[in-house]
């Protein structure tokens, strides 16, 4: 079986479709029993405990009481979706045995992702060459598409990939991985067809991986799938590469898909400049067989440890790209409860333990140097499948990697030797209280090391000055047989500081101090009532990253600074009612992503996207059916290398159709106040601060 567990072991899919169709090739780790704790809890409580529990319940209810008052679409008409005939009592949680067959749709329905639209950049001009890299139908497990790759006979410095997927029948969503030369460059997910012919087209600028496309290598596309008499969908994938030559490439920098003005006013920074594709890309997870996907799965308290390569003396920057997404029991990690409440509503309730915090940690020779949380990805079968037709969730077609600057490791990698880089996925609280809960099974991980060189550097020396980290976290909770309230918070911070001295070709010496700071923090509030039939989740993740380069002899003499902030607010609300033969499930979601990029104290990019939706499902013995309404708003402001602009888009969907789609584009925008206010409001969505939860902002 393939290393990646894809979607079959997802708890949400088990709730929606029943048991996993594909047995896992690993044993499920048994959770620690909490029966003794529960027995102790049943003993009479003293007066102080009574006061504490009452305070806890009131605090949590107060923090969540307006979840149901979000500005969500209403007046649903649950008549569009018809489902499978099997029905069983749903487990608690934000899901149902939702319908998997979408009826009355027109042939060939396009499924879209609302995202940054200018890919490729207009500055690239016309494509010089188009090459078909993948053309395959995926109907099996563990058989990726493999092909030899040869670069085109044209001069190019930019590469844009376009993925075409079409599928019909009934099928899960599936996770896809693209590897070039053994390095993962794109992680994506497929659409659920729901009985209709659906297709998607999505482009990704992979120019930072240009070095992989400049040499003979291979292309591997992994999309594990299982086809049965009932689950008949076979995704057909066509992947094209377009090659461009951008004569102005040295004047811009990439942030995701966006070209921004990253020019530094200090001429000393040019030796550390990363406004270009990486000079070398090292896939850190390797397989002897090029047809075996070079990824691994991190579970429990596992730590992935990899030998680091030696780099050339003219290498001046190092970055890690970490592809990590929770799958199987970890797909909906942000809804997990503390271990002691896993069976609070019964052993078959469907609640998963290990808590709702997930932080990706990076270690160098055993010392932590970076910590970042991950976006709570939602695939097209997640939470409620009808949410995501015809608009998928944020980043569903292009799951971004976690990018970490590790230039401070250069002094040791210049010299070589036996040095390792390690990765784990932490539940946050174990690092605070010394526990060993770990995480569940299923963090699919791929890692690349990107190096940036400068031709004017002939020699380099340095030393690591400081490695430091700090962890804070806490949980407050109270649960009985009919209700559960828990508040969990965690903050993990890391710092790496090094002295970097460059000998230049002109005979001069440049002595600097490089510092990288990272912080991953999460606030998560959950409430379950009516034995878990009513559930509310307020989850806010936030990442902050900084890279600072200063004069070694005068640290106040700053050469360059980059600050990145990402916020991931997510609010889910579910209410389940039913009898032995019929169940109704109301689900609402507010899902957002806010990003800012500042260079030398100047904002050069800010973006915000929010999805606001409601869904109704009716589970019946003769077939399940339901419907959803969604509004997606996207806004981005950019200070670009040639122009400043603002782009906005709003898309409404109802009954599986797009009912409203409006775009607005404006150049020469210099006032950042509107989008800054929007991002501040999104970042403030936090169930533990300031009482009532704010609504999703409406001024986009």
Structure commentary:
A hairpin with a 5-residue loop joins β29 (602-619) and β30. This protein has helices at 11-17, 35-41, 47-64, 210-213, 410-415, 429-433, 673-683, and strands at residues 81-82, 101-102, 109-110, 129-137, 145-149, 158-167, 175-180, 183-189, 198-205, 217-223, 236-244, 253-255, 258-260, 280-283, 296-300, 304-307, 315-326, 359-364, 367-373, 402-405, 420-426, 439-453, 457-479, 484-504, 509-529, 534-551, 554-578, 583-599, 602-619, 625-639, 644-654, 657-667. The chain is mostly beta strands. It is built from 7 helices and 32 strands. Residues 1-106 and 688-700 have low confidence and may be disordered. Helix content is 8%, strand content 45%. It has one domain (11-683). The strands form 6 sheets. Strands 1, 2, 23, 24, 25, 26, 27, 28, 29, 30, 31 and 32 form a 12-stranded antiparallel beta sheet that branches. It starts with 10 loop residues before the first helix and ends in a 17-residue tail after the last helix. The chain is globular and about 80 Å long.
| Rg from Cα | 25 Å
Multimeric status of the protein = single chain
Overall pLDDT confidence: 84
Structural domains: how many:
1
Structural category is: mainly beta
**How does the overall form come out from the CA principal axes?**
globular
- The total beta strand count reads 32
Instruction: Give start-end ranges of low-pLDDT stretches.
Output: 1-106, 688-700
Q: Strand portion, in percent?
A: over 45%
Give helix % range: under 10%
Gap from first CA to last CA: 46 Å
Largest sheet: 12 strands, antiparallel
Number of helices: 7
Protein name: Peptide N-acetyl-beta-D-glucosaminyl asparaginase amidase A N-terminal domain-containing protein
Organism: Candidozyma duobushaemuli
InterPro entries: PNGase_A, PNGaseA_N
Pfam family, one: PNGaseA
């Amino acid at each position: 079986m393939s290393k990646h567990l894809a979607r079959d072991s997802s708890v949400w899919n088990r709730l929606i479709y029943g048991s996993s169709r594909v047995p896992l090739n690993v044993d499920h780790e048994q959770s620690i029993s909490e029966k003794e704790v529960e027995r102790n809890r049943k003993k009479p409580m003293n007066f102080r405990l009574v006061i504490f529990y009452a305070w806890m319940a009131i605090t949590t209810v107060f923090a969540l009481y307006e979840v149901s008052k979000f500005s969500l679409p209403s007046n649903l008409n649950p008549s569009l979706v018809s489902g499978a005939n099997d029905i069983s009592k749903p487990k608690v949680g934000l899901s149902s045995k939702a319908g998997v067959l979408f009826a009355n749709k027109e042939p060939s329905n396009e499924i879209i992702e609302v995202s940054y639209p200018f890919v490729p950049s207009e500055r690239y001009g016309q494509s010089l060459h188009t090459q078909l890299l993948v053309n395959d139908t995926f109907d099996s497990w563990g058989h990726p598409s493999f092909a030899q790759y040869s670069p085109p006979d044209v001069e190019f410095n930019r590469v844009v990939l376009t993925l075409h997927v079409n599928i019909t029948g009934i099928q899960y969503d599936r996770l896809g991985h693209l590897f070039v030369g053994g390095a993962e460059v794109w992680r994506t997910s497929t659409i659920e067809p729901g009985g209709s012919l659906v297709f998607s087209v999505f482009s990704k600028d992979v120019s930072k991986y240009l070095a992989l496309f400049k040499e003979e290598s291979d292309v591997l596309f992994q999309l594990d799938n299982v086809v049965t008499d009932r689950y008949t969908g076979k995704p057909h994938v066509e992947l094209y590469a377009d090659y461009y030559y951008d004569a102005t490439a040295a004047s811009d920098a990439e942030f995701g898909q966006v070209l921004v003005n990253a020019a530094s006013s200090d001429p000393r920074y040019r030796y550390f400049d990363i406004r270009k594709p990486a000079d070398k890309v090292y896939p850190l997870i390797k397989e002897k067989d090029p047809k075996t996907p070079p990824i691994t799965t991190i579970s429990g308290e596992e730590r992935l440890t990899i030998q680091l390569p030696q780099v050339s003396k003219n290498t001046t920057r190092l970055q890690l790209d970490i592809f990590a997404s929770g799958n199987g029991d970890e797909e909906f990690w942000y809804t997990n409860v503390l271990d002691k409440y896993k069976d609070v509503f019964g052993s078959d309730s469907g609640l998963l333990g290990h808590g709702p915090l997930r932080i990706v940690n990076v270690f160098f020779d055993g010392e932590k140097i970076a910590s970042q949380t991950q976006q709570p990805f939602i695939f097209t079968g997640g939470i409620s499948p009808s949410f995501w037709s015809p608009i998928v969730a944020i980043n569903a077609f292009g799951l971004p990697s976690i990018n970490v600057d590790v230039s401070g490791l250069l002094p040791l990698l210049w010299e070589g030797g036996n040095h390792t880089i390690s990765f784990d996925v932490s539940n946050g609280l174990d690092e605070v209280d010394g526990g060993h809960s770990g995480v569940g099974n299923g963090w699919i991980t791929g890692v690349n090391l990107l190096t940036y060189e400068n031709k004017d550097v002939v020699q380099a020396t340095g030393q690591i000055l400081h490695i430091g980290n700090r962890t804070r976290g806490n949980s407050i909770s109270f649960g009985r047989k009919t209700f559960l309230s828990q508040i969990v918070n965690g903050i993990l911070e890391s710092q790496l500081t090094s002295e970097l001295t460059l000998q230049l070709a002109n005979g001069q010496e440049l002595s600097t101090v490089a510092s990288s700071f990272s912080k991953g923090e999460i606030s998560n509030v959950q409430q379950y009532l009516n034995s878990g039939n009513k559930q509310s989740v307020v989850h806010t993740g936030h990442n902050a990253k900084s890279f600072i380069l200063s004069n070694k002899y005068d640290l106040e003499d700053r050469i360059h600074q980059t600050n990145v902030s990402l916020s991931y607010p997510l609010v889910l609300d579910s209410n389940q009612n039913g009898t032995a033969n019929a169940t109704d499930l109301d689900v609402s979601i507010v899902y957002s992503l806010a990003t800012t990029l500042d260079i030398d104290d100047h904002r050069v990019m800010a973006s915000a996207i929010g999805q606001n939706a409601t869904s109704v499902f009716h589970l019946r013995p003769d077939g399940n059916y339901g419907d959803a309404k969604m509004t997606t708003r996207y806004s981005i402001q950019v200070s670009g290398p040639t122009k400043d602009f603002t782009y906005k888009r709003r898309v409404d969907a109802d009954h599986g159709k797009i009912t409203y789609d409006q775009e607005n584009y404006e150049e020469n925008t210099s006032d950042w106040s509107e989008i800054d206010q929007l991002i501040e409001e999104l970042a403030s969505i936090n169930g533990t601060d300031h009482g009532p939860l704010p609504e999703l902002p409406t001024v986009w």
